[in-house]
Write a structure and sequence with these properties.
The protein is α+β, with helices and mostly antiparallel strands. It contains six helices and eight strands. It has a single domain, classed as Chemotaxis protein chec (3-Layer(aba) Sandwich). Helix 1 crosses helix 4 and helix 3 crosses helix 4.
Amino acid sequence: MSNISHLNADHIDILREIGNIGAGNAATALSQLLNKKIEMNVPSVQIVSFDEMMDLVGGAEQVVAAVFLRIEGEAPGNMFFVLSLSQAERFVKQMTGEHGFSFSSQQSELGLSALQELGNILAGSYLSALADFTHLKLYPSVPALTVDMIGAILQYGLLELSRVGDYAIVIDTAVHEEQEPQDSVNGHFFLLPDPDSFAPIFRSLGVELP
């Protein structure tokens, strides 16, 4: 399935639009949850190799915070929302007011719950946007939060996919309060469809993969 790398700029624009709609939905949900105006944007959408995906977060041994969920339905696959530890700590501090939160010390349940809820809202919003665009039936599992080396976290999602291809969809995501764009929290949203899911996803978007 490495021919996914041959998608052109128009195809990437479709994926970016899905990302922007998902980000808008997630921003609305976060604003309601936190009772403050939250904005999100999608700086870029890329089709990258697994090696490039690892490099985006500092290499396979880089320790990150990640929310993972499994997609079931007509185009099964895996979804990950990945933050560096410094970005994850910044988000928790901004959203909970726990300015002493740190992954290097005992973490509060409130802080970890806030991080998992961010991943849950983001993943659900992006998945909903993808389902609306493609008209495919897609169902998310309950998300799980983990802190580990990115290589170990992604290994599960890569095992099946890497047998026939080596590409994934990456949606960069920036989250910030309306009046404080300089304090943006930046993460990566990885969509790893199962090998047989690439074709129905892109066919539903009007793209026939060779």
